[in-house]
Design brief:
110 residues; mainly beta; two-stranded antiparallel ribbon; 0% helix; 35% strand; globular; chaperone; Chaperonin_GroES
Length: 110
Amino acid sequence: MHAVSDGPKLEIQMLHDRVLVRLSQEEGERRSSGGIVIPATAQVARRLAWGDVLGVGNSVRNVKSGDRVLFNPEDQLEVEIQGEGHLVMRERDIHAVATERTEHGTGLYL
């Protein structure tokens, strides 16, 4: 059995149109704008999630490392890196980008 830390450190580079995302830490329960507590177990519809982009492939055009992205976590592939779960997805699976550099924004902010 080989331990990962025995050899040289290898930098992860994403390929093609792939994006590496770390899920944002969300609170278990949410509160509506009217103050109603919504428990974490409530399932009304499939819920999109926000995540932080850690790396992008050379064919990715609209997303950069450091951006926050909105996506469906159920449709993505999960990978463990240094004991922490990350997701790998194609750029086309990202629904929105929250970034400081906007060209065609919605006027809404996180």
